[in-house]
Amino acid sequence: MSIRRLLRVIGAVVAAIGVAMLLPVVVALIYQEFGDAWQLALAAATTVGFGGWAWQFGRSDTAQLTAREGFAIVGLSWIAMTFFGTLPYLFSGAITDFSDAFFETAAGFSTTGASIVPDPGELAKGILLWRAFTQWIGGMGIIVLSIAILPLLGVGGVELARAESPGPTPDRLTPRFRETAKRLWLVYAAFTAIEAMLLWLGDMTLFEAIAHSFTTMSTGGFSTDGQSMAAFSPYSQWVVIVFMFIAGASFALHFRSIARPKDYLRNAEFRLYGGIIIVATIVAAIGTWSGAMIDILRDSLFTITSLVTTTGYGTADFGVWPAALQIMVLGLMFVGGMAGSTGGSMKPYRLGVLYQASKADLRRVIHPKGVFPVRLGRDVVPDHIVESVQSFFLLYMFIFMTGTLAFGIINDVAGAGFDLVTSASAVASSVGNVGPGLAAVGPTSNYALVPDAGKWLLSFLMIVGRLEIFPVILLFTRELWRR
User: Which residues make beta-bridge pairs with 397?
Assistant: First the structure.
């Protein structure tokens, strides 16, 4: 483990975040927010300066990254970029408390969408753009972006990708991962631009359309309005439904399906992903049936798609749905988008493998000498993938349970008065990168009343969930740091 190699890459990532801060500077100048523009520029300069120093300190060590260093870099990079991502909020005075600023930034880069801001519409345009842009950057992953555009990360790129890519394994489109990353980002950017144009044709301003396209394609869910997507027309909501669904599917699958559209239906995980959304939408529509049918179907489909893809937008308050539907809502927080999407949580692939592995185990009980391979669709899932999925599931549930316990203890010590539903849903939402929870942190509320210790816990869980657990957990093991 080379500290210089770690600093070289982390410094480059932090510097890239500083350069990204220049976009909200331009927006602030366009809207004549000159005071904010100056503070944002200062935040950018500070971030680039530190990143440049770290890169300069470590640039003498150009050896290839090891797998251990890849995991360490990913975990530390996300912590570092979240820390420096707070500076635009703090320097501009949009958020004055560091705990609140860190929580908002973690929710941004992790694409969780949980917020402590009561009404985003009151924020300056430059800050609103930064808030949305953090989600767009975090959506496909700043590490993957860096691999695609920074030559100095060309060596060891696969190790970084293996640690950062959401899903069981990074899906290559070409033999060179750097070319794969470029293609994925091209698809990501193209969908973002198309959605922005379609939203602009509706009732959104150009600024609102760009901001919402950033936070839709990243499955982040930060809105420019305190009412989320309920503040916009049914046309805009239908556009967002379509692009949430697209963002929750594998971007590698999108790329392949440009030439072969039938690949969508041939993909077992895509069928499972779509099937979950369809069935849950029907259940939600039946359970909330009242009023105009088209409105009920639109609200149900919007809410379910938002939950499954972990986007977190809202048009309906599922906090007032019947208790049985709220249990379904909590369960959907554990589903997530496809492997290779910008969505969080467990992923339908893993859930499908767990189900098929359970069926195989039951058949072995009846036929002890039988051989029953685990299949997902037509493909046989290798044993090491099945074991990896089972380990991930156990770790995920362990983190959920211990996180809920820790949040409950913090709640009791601080006297916040949150009930079990609030605690469990806040933790499930954070680990799954969903955003809104139930009860006191429901879709019409926010996380402002959560004690500072609770915000730090949830921020940590957001990053853990975004990085698929292992890169962050490994930071706390001796084996990662042992020479």
Answer: none
Instruction: Look at phi and psi of residue 347 and say left if phi exceeds 0, alpha if psi is from -120 to 50, else beta.
Output: left
Distance from the first to the final alpha carbon of the chain: 6
Give the whole-angstrom CA distance, residue 360 versus residue 356.
Answer: 6
pLDDT for 55 equals 85
Q: What are phi and psi of 114, to 5 degrees?
A: -70, 145
In angstroms, the Cα distances linking 73 to 5, 157, 268, 372, 375 are 9, 11, 33, 39, 34
List strand residue ranges (DSSP E) for 352-422, in order.
375-376, 379-380
Pairing assessment for the beta strands 375-376 and 379-380 based on DSSP bridges: antiparallel
Q: Give the number of residues written for the chain.
A: 483
pLDDT digits (tens, 9 = 90+) for 145-194: 555 544 444 434 444 455 444 555 555 555 566 677 788 888 999 999 99
User: Which tens digit of pLDDT belongs to each residue from 41-89?
Assistant: 999 999 999 999 988 887 766 666 777 777 788 888 899 999 999 999 9
**Of 328, 302, 332, 349, the residue nearest 468 (C-alpha):** 349
Count CA atoms closer than 13 A to 301's CA, side-chain side: 19
Token pair of 405, please? Answer: 């316990």
CB-CB contact of 90 with 101 (8 Å): yes
**Residues ≥6 apart with Cβ < 8 Å to 122:** none
Among all chains, which residue has been given the structure tokens 């958020």? 95
- Phi first, then psi, for residue 111 (nearest 5°) are 60, 30
What is the reported pLDDT for 184? 85
Phi-psi region of 40 (alpha: psi -120 to 50; beta: other; left: phi over 0): alpha
Cβ 124 vs Cβ 28: under 8 Å: yes
Structure tokens at 40: 């944002």
What does 273-323 look like in DSSP terms, one character per residue? HHHHHHHHHHHHHHHT--S-HHHHHHHHHHHHHHHHTT----SS-GGGS-H
**Hey, which residues does 379 pair with through a beta bridge?**
376
User: Looking at the whole model, is its pTM more than 0.90?
Assistant: yes
